[in-house]
Amino acid sequence: MQNDTIAAISTAPGIGAISIVRMSGEEALKILNKFFKPSNLRPFKSHTIRYGKIYEDDQLIDEVLVSFFKAPNTFTKEDMVEINTHGGHYIAQKVLSLCLNNGARPAENGEFTERAFLNGRIDLTEAESVLDMIESRSELSLKLATQGLSGKIRSFIENLRHDLLQLIAQIEVNIDYPEYDDVAELTHSFLIPQATKVKQEIEKILDKAVYGQIIRSGIKTAIVGRPNVGKSSLLNALINEEKAIVTEVQGTTRDIVEGFINIGGITLHLIDTAGIRETSDFIEKIGIEKSKKAIQEAELVLLVLDQSEPLTSMDKDLLALTEKKERIIILNKDDLPNRLGQPFEDAIPMSVLKKTNLDVLEKSIHTRYLDGMIKIDQNLYLSNPRHVQKLNEALTKINQALETAQQAFPVDMIEMDIKGAWETLGEIIGETSDTALIDALFSQFCLGK
Ligand SMILES: Nc1nc2c(ncn2[C@@H]2O[C@H](COP(=O)(O)OP(=O)(O)OP(=O)(O)O)[C@@H](O)[C@H]2O)c(=O)[nH]1
Ligand SMILES: [Mg+2]
Question: Does residue 17 sit in the same domain as residue 87?
Fold first, then answer.
């Protein structure tokens, strides 16, 4: 039920300078007045803060500052009250229980934001971006999340839907009052070009979404190579911690070791693998199988070669195995004489031991992933997987519509797919329902024309 008044502690649990108990709903002020005694008896004006005391029966609980926001200009579009209590978990709990004992009900997770959405103050993408902002761990991912809050995603989706709606309207009008002599003319002069335009706009954003998702979830990066080339040393150097065991014995690493680094706003999920070679050792064999799986699953492979030794057949196998992956070749042990026997263009020479050229590697990763990103402020980078998935679904439907149009099938078949795409896009902003389609359609289009 959406008319009841909800209450919750909005600050993190534990000791802090203040805690905030929040209420939203019609009864918020009435409930507050049952236990809050303001310092004077003037009526509580909207969007002001008052000082006062909280009592349970006649016992003083806390002295507080209370803000009151009258609907509709509030976060939830309902009346809202925020009680700033002294910090410490118990005081806030006590004030919360006073709210609950006087008629509020405990809010569910995210329910204030959900009300903001249900009451039409924000759309689904804006609600989701509040969550994404809270979960952001780097400056870039925070920046991406705020794109949603600023309404950038919503307006992109709304524009696409507007274009699709015009298409639908045109088809509807043509079915009822054929303006064109034949269907072929309608499809070719209007449908195909318009649908293609929408298709291209979606593809452009989906291309960039790759970067958005990388920033949000990090790049899965496998460090691979034959034994003893310095893979574990590289992991340790990058994460700046002696996490993986390093020895001069071949086959030291037998299981996956992982670590995380942040390079200029991008998170790398690093995976150090067992060196790959022929072996009869049972445990090492399992490790090697895991290494091969890690290569398959990796989004980026750092292939390490030991340039102080001639290239082996295992190196060649690994070069072939990783050829189709996003790959950076590292020529390690640059402090020793080069006996590799062949040049590698674009490879990064490095001495992990002497810590030379680590910065070149970091820069190369940064360039590889961030050069495609021009400016977050000027472009839209989708990072929420749900948005990307829905946008892909909408694209599939538009492609279907285009195919049908090219084969000159009846227009109502095309219309079905276009409507499907319109609805799927609506799901991104949380707005689709059949009546909405009808309302929007007629408010846009004058049939008397
Ligand atoms: N000279 C020199 N030695 C290095 C360098 N990097 C690593 N080593 C040495 O090479 C040996 C093997 O290093 P590791 O990091 O254990 O190699 P690995 O590739 O993880 O080996 P496995 O786990 O057995 O597959 C150690 O003795 C390191 O000290 C380097 O840049 N120069
Ligand atoms: Mg190792």
Answer: yes
Residue 132 included in any domain: no
> What residue type is assigned to position 218 of the chain?
G
In CATH, what number is assigned to the domain containing residue 424?
1.20.120.430
Residue 166's domain spans which residues?
Answer: 139-214+380-444
State pTM to two decimals.
0.65
| Mean of per-residue pLDDT scores for the chain | 86
Q: Which residues, other chains included, contact 247 with Cβ-Cβ below 8 Å and sequence gap of 6+? A: none
Contact 28, 112 (CB under 8 A): no
Q: How many CB atoms lie within 10 A of CB 380?
A: 17
Lining ligand 1 with CB less than 6 A are 225, 227-233, 246-248, 250-253, 274-275, 332-333, 335-336, 351-353
Q: Do the domain assignments include residue 364?
A: no
Residue 432 CA to ligand 2 centre (angstroms)? 53
Where a domain ends, among 87, 121, 155? 121
Is there a single domain that holds both residue 315 and residue 242?
Answer: yes
Specify the residue with its C-alpha closest to ligand 1, atom 12.
228
Q: In this model, does residue 140 exceed pLDDT 50?
A: yes
**What CATH number did the domain enclosing 236 receive?**
3.40.50.300
Q: So what's the pLDDT on residue 444?
A: 40
Tell which of 77, 92, 121 closes a domain: 121
Higher-scoring residue by pLDDT: 275, 353: 353
Residue 446 has pLDDT above 90, yes or no: no
The ligand 1 atom at the shortest distance from the C-alpha of residue 354 is 31
- Counting ligands in written order, which one lies closest to the CA of residue 257? 2
With the most atoms of ligand 1 within 8 angstroms of its CB, the residue from 228, 258, 339, 348 to mutate is: 228
52 and 81 together in one domain? yes
The residue among 441, 447, 355, 385 whose CA lies nearest residue 167 is 441
Claim to verify: residue 306 and residue 190 sit in the same structural domain: no
What is the 336 CA–ligand 1 centroid distance (Å)? 12
Q: Which residues contact 204 (CB under 8 A, 6 or more apart)?
A: none
Atom 7, ligand 1: residue with shortest CA distance: 230
Provide CB contacts within 8 A for 337, sequence distance 6+. Answer: 308
> For residue 154, is it within any domain?
yes
Ligand 1 atom closest to Cα of 235? Answer: 15
What average pLDDT score do residues 308-330 get?
A: 93
Q: Are residues 208 and 234 in the same domain?
A: no
The candidate with the shortest Cα–Cα distance to 165, out of 421, 355, 405, 380, is 421
Q: Is residue 433 part of a domain?
A: yes
Give yes or no for a contact between 215 and 383, defined as CB atoms under 8 angstroms apart. yes
Residue 277, pLDDT > 80, answer yes
Atom of ligand 1 nearest to the CA of 253: 23
Domains contained in the chain, number: 3
Q: Which pLDDT band, with edges at 50, 70 and 90, does 442 fall under?
A: very low
* Least distant ligand from the CA of 234: 1
